[in-house]
Amino acid sequence: MLSSGNFWKDLKGPLYMLAPMEDVTDTAFRELVMRISTPGLPHILFTEFTSVDGLCHPVGREKVSYRLKVSDSERELLDTLGIKLIAQVWGNDPEKFSSALKYIEEEYSFDAIDINMGCPVKNVVAHGSGSALIDSETQAGEIIAAARESLTLPLSVKTRIGFKYKDTERWISYLLSQPLDAITVHGRIQKQMSEGETDWNEIGRAVGLRNAIAPDIKLIGNGDVSSLEEANEKIAKYGTDGIMFGRGIFRNPWLFYPFNIDIGIKERTEALRLHLDLFKKAWGEGRHFPILKRFFKIYLSDFPGAASFRSAMMDVNSFDEAEYIIESFSMEKIPGS
């Protein structure tokens, strides 16, 4: 089932997006974010990043294709709210990109494809993928060409400002010469991983290059933005078409609900319950329950008794155990529950 049209050309800014994150942005969490956000926000969501090598291997496809799962309830919500969903992929072999992207377009219903050319993780870099492609223009260009030739969907790249050092002008200028619809620029080099300060001046430089070389390509900024208010300040100052939020969602799952509301124990407990329910419905026993434990802190914080509640939840290993702890805490702490 194919999506049609190039939304990158049609969507007007500012654009707010939730970044692709490993073991985070699965179908359950994406749906949760939409359900606790202002209707229609975020404008764009991404899958977890998926290996083209895995998709091209008969056994590997079964192991990695869960990253592309879209539940029926998520799909209904996406369509109702008009939110776009992009599949992000990674690898270093143009032929495998060609084969994998044909498969994705034939078997799924995504609005676009994004190529990861920014992941700093060592095993990905050692593979010659992710941010390793920043220093391999020829390889990167061949991958983009193969992807573009294989797709009718829009195509974008997520990357960084350099590998071992800041190399924005050379690298972003090169990407701007490629047949892309959008580029997301994370304001760190590979060597920094997720540490140190994001260099928004370099993102601003990327915008200047875009304006001069390829003004029709959308340029999205990424790195340490934790609120819509801060996003709007960055957009106004540096001229990006939008902001991609990453780790900020862990500090505030209601990041895309910008109204001044009081998020208390009841709202946090309800969000936790909703996430557990969506995860169970989407995966059953198909994904390990402990994956959920990384989320407990984002719901169970900033209220009296949060630490003990969170500690008890970290010991649970099933949905039934989780519900028992939540119910016990709710009866004790939440009025009228």
From TrEMBL:
Known cofactor(s): FMN
GO molecular function: flavin adenine dinucleotide binding; tRNA binding; tRNA dihydrouridine synthase activity
Active site: 119 (proton donor)
Annotated keywords: Flavoprotein, FMN, NADP, Nucleotide-binding, Oxidoreductase, RNA-binding, tRNA processing, tRNA-binding
Protein residues bound to FMN: 88, 158, 186, 246-247
Lineage, uppermost ranks: Bacteria, Pseudomonadati, Bacteroidota, Bacteroidia, Marinilabiliales
Entry annotated with the keyword Oxidoreductase: yes
PROSITE patterns: UPF0034
Function: Catalyzes the synthesis of 5,6-dihydrouridine (D), a modified base found in the D-loop of most tRNAs, via the reduction of the C5-C6 double bond in target uridines.
Protein name, as recorded: tRNA-dihydrouridine synthase
PANTHER family recorded: TRNA-DIHYDROURIDINE(47) SYNTHASE [NAD(P)(+)]-LIKE
Domain of life according to the entry: Bacteria
EC class name: oxidoreductase
InterPro entries in UniProt: Aldolase_TIM (IPR013785), DUS-like_FMN-bd (IPR035587), DUS_fam (IPR001269), tRNA-dHydroUridine_Synthase_C (IPR024036), tRNA_hU_synthase_CS (IPR018517)
Family: Belongs to the dus family.
Nuclease among keywords: no
Reaction(s) catalysed by this chain's protein: a 5,6-dihydrouridine in tRNA + NAD(+) = a uridine in tRNA + NADH + H(+); a 5,6-dihydrouridine in tRNA + NADP(+) = a uridine in tRNA + NADPH + H(+)
EC code: 1.3.1.-
Gene3D superfamilies reported for this sequence: Aldolase class I (3.20.20.70), Putative flavin oxidoreducatase, domain 2 (1.10.1200.80)
